[in-house]
Amino acid sequence: MAFPDTALGVRVELHLAGAWLDVTGDVYTESPITITRGRPDEGARTDASSCTFVLDNRTGRYSPRNPRSDLYGLLGRNTPVRVSVAPAGPDGPRLVRFVGEVPAWPVRWGTPHDVTVPVQAAGILRRLGQGAAPIHSALRREFTHPSRTSVVAYWPLEDGPDASEFASALPGAAPMRVSVPGVRPAAYSGYAASDALPTLGEGALTATVPRYKLTTETALRVVVVIPQTPPEREIPLCTVATTGLAARWTITLRPDQRLSMYATALGGLELVRVIGGGDTLAGRRLTLGLDLNDRGIATDWRLYYLDIDAYTLSGGGRVPQWSGTTVPGAHGRITHVSMGGGTSGELAVGHVVLATRLDAYANTGSAMVAWAGEGAGARLERLAREEQIPLDSTGRTGALATRVGAQRVAALLDLWQEVADADDGRLYEPRDRLGLAYRTRATHYTQPIKLALDYAAREVEAPLEPVEDDQAVRNDITVQRSGGSFARAVREDGPLSVQPPPQGIGRYAEQITVALADDTQCAHVAWWRLHRGTWDAPRYPAVSVALHQAPHLVGPVAAVDVGDRLTITHPPPWLPPERVELLVEGYTETLGTRTWEIEFTCSPGGPWLVATADHPEYALAGPDAVELVADADTTTTHLTVRTTAGPLWPTSTQSPGLYPVAVRIGGEQLDITAAVPGARPGEQVLTVTRATNDVALPHRAGAAVQLARPALVAL
C-alpha cells in the first residue's frame, strides 16, 4: 500500500563517522518537519534552504559535549543531515527532500521529562554567507592556484594605501620592501584583474627571493602600467639579481616609451643588450615576461609582453618578443627582485611572479583580463571548481550564453549573484546533495509543463488568491553596464505604460547596474526586463497542494524544482477562465506522519513563453493588427475581419495543417478553423469555433483579434 493509506515514511539521517545514521525514532512526530527551498518571491535573492524538526533529548544523546551519549565526539557544527520520504511504501524508492548541515545543537528543557533539541538545518548558502570575505583578485587567484606548482615567489603588490611593505602571497616568504622612498601604495585602481596597485614615482621596491631548488628554466612575470607621459631618461622597470654569470638582468623603459633589456656580469661586462622595437607603449597596460633557459652549451633568453587591453577571452592577443642566446652559465638562481629605481612618475606595477618552468604561466591569459567575456554558466562553474563547491549547472542546447564582465574583487556569493542577475537565471541549492545549482535564463523559455494542476478537480488547496498589484511593475528601465554605458527601455502605450491613468498607470522607473561584457548587451537586457515588468496578468504568489488529499499527484509534485513551469486549469468562475501560467521560484513543504503539504512560491510564467520554431503553441506569428469589420453576437461563427498591419491569415491551401489557431477577442477565446478572402482588399472571412474558454461574448466592429498565446522572440 502507498501513502496516504500507509505512513509517508519520513526518515531523518545524520552523517556521522562516514555513514548515514537513522535518527527518525528520536524526531517528535507532533512537530512536523518543515523544508523551505528557493527564493521567497520574484524579486528577492535565493535564501539558504532550511529544514526544521525537533529531537527528543531526554537521554542527552544530542548534547554534543555529553560523554554519556553514544554520539559523543561525533556531533558537531555543520553535521550533514538528510531527510527523505517513501510515499510508495516501505519497499518503494525513497525521495530525498533535503540535504543540508546542522550548524548548532541547542538544548531546551522545561522539566527532566521535556528535553529537546530544536534543529534548524540549512543549505550551503548559509555557511558561504557567514563572514563573506571577498575572494582575491583574478590574477592573485590564478598565480596562487595549487596547480601552479612551479611558482616559487609571488608578490601581488595589492596592499592597502597605508602599507609600509608589500606582503608575499606565498607563506613564509619575506615581503617586498620600499628601498627608495616615493612609492605610493594602492594608487592605481584601473585594472579589473587586480586590486589597487602602487605607483613608483621616484621610489623603488626590492624583495629577497626565498631559496628554491634551481632548475634549468626560470620565468619572470610582472604587470606594468605605462603612463602617457614619457620618462625624461631611460628608467629601470624590473631588475633581477642572480647567482649566474649574468649577475643582473634589467628591463627598462626608454624616453621613446619602448623597452630595452641589459644583462651584465659582476665586473660590469655587458652580456646581453636588446633595444625593443615595435609600437610605443604610452598608456598601455602590459604583462612583461622574461624567460631564461640553461641549455648547458648556452643560455637562451626571451623578453616579451602581452598588451592587456588588446587581449580578449575568445581571441587572445599578439605577443611581441625578442630572443637570443648568451654565454653558458649566465642563468642562475634569482636572489633579489627590484621594481623601479628612477623617476617613474605614475607608472604602476604589480603581480611580480617567479617560476622555475617556462610553461608556468600557460592559460593565464583569461585571468589577465579578469575573465571578461566569459559565459554566465562557465563563470559559475569555474568559481565553483576553484572553491571546491559542487555545482549543478543547466543550460539550453543551442542557446547563446550571456557574456559577463570582468570578475571583481568581491565576496563569492556576490560574484555568483551578479552573474545570475546579468543572465536573469536562477541560483539555488539542490535538494538531494549539499551544493549549489544554476539554471540559465534560456532554460526557462517555453519549457514543457512540469506540473499541471486542475482546480476543478480539487488539486489546488484554497485559497488560490490572484493579486492585481504593482509590486513587480517596471515600465521605464535603465540598464547600466558596470563601468560602461547604458540603455533605456520604456513602455509608451498599453495598460501598464508610463502614460497617466486611465491610458496607463504612470511611470515605474528602475535603474540597475549589471555585470555585462560589453555595452551592446544593455539594450537587450533592458527590453527583456521591460517585457517582464509590464506583463499584464495577475500574480499568484502561492499555490498549495495537499498530497494526502491528492495522492495521484505525489510523483509530479515531488519532481517540481526551482524554475519549473506550473499551470492551473479550470480556475473558479470568479477568476479569468484561461490557463494560469506560473514559474516556480521556491516552495515550503511540511512533512507529517500521514500528511504532506507543499506551498509553491510562484511568479508569472507568461513572460517566459517565447517564440520557439518547433513548439505546437508558441511557434505561431499572426498578423500585426486585425480588427472586426462588423458586429458579432454570441453565436456568429463566420467573422469578417480586416488586417491593417502585417500579412493576412493564410488560407488552408497555402498552409495545410495550420488550423485551428487560438485567438482572443476581448475576454473570449476562439479557434480559427479556416480563412478565405473577403469582399474587399485586406478583408477575410474567418470560420471560428466560439467560446473555447467557456466564455461567449458579443463583439463590436473594430474589436482587435489577437493570438491567444502571443510569443515574444527572446533576446
Explain what the structure shows:
The mean pLDDT is 93. It is built from 7 helices and 41 strands. The chain folds into 6 domains: 11-129; 138-368, Jelly Rolls (Sandwich), CATH 2.60.120.200; 376-444, no CATH class; 469-533, no CATH class; 539-608, no CATH class; 625-707, Thrombin, subunit H (Beta Barrel). Helix 4 (376-387) packs antiparallel against helix 5. Helix content is 8%, strand content 36%.
Short note summarizing the structure:
This protein has 715 residues and is mainly β. Helix content is 8%, strand content 36%. It has six domains: 11-129; 138-368, Jelly Rolls; 376-444, no CATH class; 469-533, no CATH class; 539-608, no CATH class; 625-707, Beta Barrel (Thrombin, subunit H).
